[in-house]
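User:
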Amino acid sequence: MPIARGSSMMSLGTWKARSTKYQRFLNLSNVFMLIVSTILLFTSGILISFYHLTKLDFWSWYFYACPMCMLALGLYTFAVSVYGFLISNQESRGLISLIAIFLSIAFFVQIFSVFTAFELRNKINMQRIPPNYLENMREYNRDDTITGNWDTMQRELRCCGGMHFEDGFNEWNTIMAGDVPDSCCHEENEGCGKGKITYSQEGPFRTDLSIWKDGCLEILQLKMRDDVAPLLIVYSGVGVLLAIVELITVVLACSYIAQISRRRRRDEMFTRAATANDEEYLPSLTSKETNF
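Assistant: Predicted structure:
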């Protein structure tokens, strides 16, 4: 019986040391994922609100998929890392198994997100804006979402129409019959865009139209090549690093679960051994007392 107890105490000390290492590694990975998830949320907000990428889905679906993947991954990874902190001191195999499952899902989604970032960068650098943007413009005043997209871009970017500098507003001519949307006006009010194109065509010197003249997509294309394309390269590198950390964390979580399982089996074995020794020892004492 003393040997069994000594072995049990030794295994308990070893297990505590190893479990502490696993918990330390898991906490470090949670800190890293918490920081990166915050950066992802901030970056996706910039791409969506400042560069209006989600409004360019008529160009390619990657313009919508990439920032939305960033946003979803940021929220998801933030929630998982907080959950990891909450259970960091728990020795429950079920709770730790959930960490492994959650991060396995995040790993595959992260790989997909990096792929969309690469493809989006290629679209920005190697392709011109396709002419189907005119079809999107024709849905103005017919589709509330498209109307809102163009109004937002024209207000915030101080532009009007699709392509071309100085005369991008003329692309509204065939769509609105000589008018431009009110969101093109320097000082926006109801009806301020009526007749602006017609007025500009009446004479070559009528240039003071009080509207923005550069095409929105022309401005966005320059901004994306200068700002978004380099940002996507950085994101791809950080995304690969995050995927590696997630994979390592899954392996560590599985190892921690296995360690807990081995420790519990060992404790059960020592408990049975100690119980068996006590059962053999007590009858011998009883028999000696009876003989005496």
